[in-house]
């Protein structure tokens, strides 16, 4: 059996090495390292894939979130609602821009923001909601968009973990995540479902005006060279990364299918273990399994993690401390008990190896050991 990794980028690369190497070589030959034709090609292909009018590539997923908030013209003191059960980047950029981060608890089943709690957390200062499609499936976007419309709020989708997943409307229509709100954000960090070989990110929108603003912000507030309309940032996607992404985009559906298949194999193994709760898929979403995350019931998690380590099985806890209890957010004055579901989840979740190259022999080994240890 080949060694088990949390994410296996090497085996994936070996299968597409020829195409990737050739495309990277073209960039080097052309010396168009920043912007240039490769970035444009990838941008167009991603627009087609997502079914969205504008994709603006940028330097990473955190920047994607930051430039989105900047593009909407929010000012100091405006409130932005998001989840405490996510990677820090989502809430970090809110704080960095001097906006007020307001957390709303998540649902036990899906780990995503609990839309039934949204309305009571909206104040006259609330200007935007950032739903995070955690681990690869959609928040309840139909309800979120209704509430946003009612209170005139912007919606920025954090699609960093869910690129390729779709929201399913009640009438059966499907729409790619990141294209439903005013702006969608994604990350091309190597371990993401569509990952490059370094840092990368993008924002998406169907709104021409917002797109124009985003392009300017990512390029120092500049449309005509050395004429700066406003203060922006430098956030660009390297052409070498675009060359990698343009190849991998062709395989994204296959990659997401491979993850789904691996999730089904795991589900089967764990379905009858009363101490393990397998992932729940919402009726209104497809799932691209960025993470395969279990919940333990009445089990000492740290002991199991230690035993898995000894058996050479990497596992991770996403996320061990909800954001409202992070020291970095002390100034928000949240305390233990404010978001009970997020707090309880942070104590019982565990994510198993999940990537496009997992094989059944490896999964069998992971499953047998986990059963033995719980
Ligand atoms: C990865 C991630 C980000 C940040 O992306 P980077 O490219 O690492 O900056 C933001 N939000 C979520 C939910 C993520 O998973």
Summarize the structure.
The chain has 374 residues and is an alpha/beta fold. It is 37% helix and 15% strand.
Structure description:
The protein is of the alpha/beta class and 374 residues long. The protein has two domains: 9-104 and 112-249, Type I PLP-dependent aspartate aminotransferase-like (Major domain) (Aspartate Aminotransferase, domain 2); 252-373, Alpha-Beta Complex (Aspartate Aminotransferase, domain 1). Helix content is 37%, strand content 15%. It has eleven helices and 14 strands. The strands form four sheets. The protein has a seven-stranded mixed sheet with strand order 1-9-8-5-4-2-3, with helices on both faces. A three-stranded antiparallel sheet has the order 12-13-14. Strands 6-7 form a two-stranded antiparallel sheet. Helix 2 packs parallel to helix 7 (239-250), helix 3 packs across helix 4 and helix 3 packs across helix 6. The longest helix is centred in the N-terminal third of the chain and has 22 residues, at 9-30. The chain is globular. Pyridoxal-5'-phosphate is lined by residues 60-62, 86-87, 89-90, 132, 158, 160-161, 187, 189, 199, 201.
Overall number of structural domains: 2
What coarse outline follows from CA principal-axis ratios?
Answer: globular
CATH homologous superfamily annotation of the largest domain: Type I PLP-dependent aspartate aminotransferase-like (Major domain)
CATH architecture of the largest domain: 3-Layer(aba) Sandwich
Side by side, the strands of the main sheet go 1-9-8-5-4-2-3
Distance between the termini: 23 Å
CATH class of the largest domain: Alpha Beta
Series of secondary-structure elements, N-terminal to C-terminal: HHEHEHEEHEEEEEHEEHHEEHHEH
Spans where pLDDT lies below 50 across 5 or more residues: none
Helix content: 25-40%
- Strand percentage: 5-15%
CATH fold-level label of the largest domain: Aspartate Aminotransferase, domain 2
Mean pLDDT comes to 97
């Amino acid at each position: 059996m080949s060694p088990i990794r949390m994410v296996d980028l090497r085996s994936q690369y070996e299968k597409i090495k020829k195409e990737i190497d050739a495309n990277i070589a073209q960039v080097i030959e052309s010396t168009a390292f920043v912007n240039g034709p490769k970035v444009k090609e990838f941008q167009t292909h991603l627009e087609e894939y997502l079914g969205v009018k504008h994709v603006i590539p940028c330097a990473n997923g955190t920047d994607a979130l930051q430039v989105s908030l900047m593009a909407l013209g929010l000012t100091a003191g405006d409130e932005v609602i998001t989840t405490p059960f996510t990677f820090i980047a989502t809430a970090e950029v809110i704080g960095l821009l001097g906006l007020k981060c307001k957390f709303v608890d998540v649902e036990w089943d899906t780990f995503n923001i609990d839309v039934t709690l949204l309305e009571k957390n909206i104040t006259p200062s609330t200007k935007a909601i950032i739903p995070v499609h955690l681990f690869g499936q959609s928040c309840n976007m139909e309800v979120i968009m209704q509430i946003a419309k009612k209170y005139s709020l912007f919606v920025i989708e954090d699609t960093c973990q869910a690129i390729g997943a779709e929201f399913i409307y009640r009438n059966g229509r499907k729409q790619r995540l990141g294209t439903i709100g005013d702006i969608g954000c994604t990350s091309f960090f190597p371990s993401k479902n569509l990952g490059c070989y370094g840092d990368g990110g993008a924002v998406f929108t169907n709104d021409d005006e917002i797109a124009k603003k985003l392009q300017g912000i990512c390029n120092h507030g500049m449309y005509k060279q050395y004429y700066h309309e406003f203060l922006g940032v430098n956030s660009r996607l390297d052409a070498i990364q675009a060359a990698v992404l343009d190849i991998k985009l062709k395989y994204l559906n296959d990659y997401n299918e491979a993850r789904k298949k691996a999730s089904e194999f795991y589900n089967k193994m764990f379905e009858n273990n009363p101490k393990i709760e397998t992932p729940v898929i919402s009726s209104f979403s497809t799932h691209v399994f960025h993470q395969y995350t279990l919940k333990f019931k009445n089990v000492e998690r740290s002991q199991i993690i230690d035993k898995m380590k000894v058996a050479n099985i990497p596992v991770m806890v996403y996320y061990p401390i909800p954001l409202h209890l992070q020291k970095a957010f002390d100034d928000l004055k949240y305390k233990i008990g404010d978001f009970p579901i997020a707090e309880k989840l942070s104590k019982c979740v565990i994510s198993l190896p999940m990537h496009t190259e997992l094989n059944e022999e490896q999964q069998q080994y992971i499953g047998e050991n986990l059963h033995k240890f719980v």
